[in-house]
Design goal:
Mean pLDDT: 78
Strand order of the largest sheet: 1-2-3-4
Largest sheet: 4 strands, antiparallel
Oligomer: single chain
Order of helices and strands: HHHEEEEHHH
Helix content: 25-40%
Shape: elongated
Length: about 170
């Protein structure tokens, strides 16, 4: 790339990999009206890779999502982390069984007494924090506290939503 075409980083400009970027120039006016070749070109432009062998409808959805992502930002850390977990589960088992009951929001606090000592865990955007240390999972914290392998959610008394439901629908099992 010659110097005339190279983007300038002068005057504190942000690097090109920041979360919010302006859409690249010359985007399709209406992806829904484009033919398959135009959609493939648009995919290459937005993703900088060859388009997958998707149906026209899925290409349109992928292009629309990418444009929205460029305009408004991508997924937050907890959602990306959950998607990675689900992808790993699929690669390992060939199935995806999302956990319907553990939906902890950042800032939530979990408290557990163990051998006369109270342990408090705070849910963060990146995982969990206990005694000033960050952890990727509750299980790691439970192991640290007990010195043995424990299910973190079980150790902290968290139950799956489905396990709380009874046949009469009153939530008491």
């Amino acid at each position: 790339m010659d110097a005339a075409r190279r983007p300038s980083r002068a005057h504190g400009d942000k690097p090109a990999n920041t979360k919010r970027r302006s859409p690249p120039p010359a985007q399709l006016a209406a992806p829904e009206a484009a033919d398959l070749n135009e959609l493939r070109c648009e995919w290459r432009r937005l993703y900088c890779s060859e388009p997958p062998r998707f149906s026209r409808d899925l290409l349109i959805r992928g292009i629309s999502y990418r444009l929205q992502e460029i305009e408004h930002g991508g997924l937050n850390k907890s959602t990306r982390r959950k998607l990675k977990t689900l992808a790993k589960m699929f690669e390992t088992t060939g199935r995806i069984a999302p956990d319907p009951g553990l939906s902890l929001k950042p800032g939530a606090r979990l408290v557990r007494e163990w051998h006369g000592r109270t342990h408090t865990v705070t849910v963060t955007e990146d995982g969990f924090e206990s005694a000033g240390v960050s952890y990727p999972s509750l299980t790691k914290i439970a192991e640290k506290i007990t010195g043995a392998h424990w299910s973190g959610p079980r150790f902290f008394g968290l139950k799956r939503t489905g396990a709380l439901r009874s046949g009469n629908g009153d939530g008491h099992g």
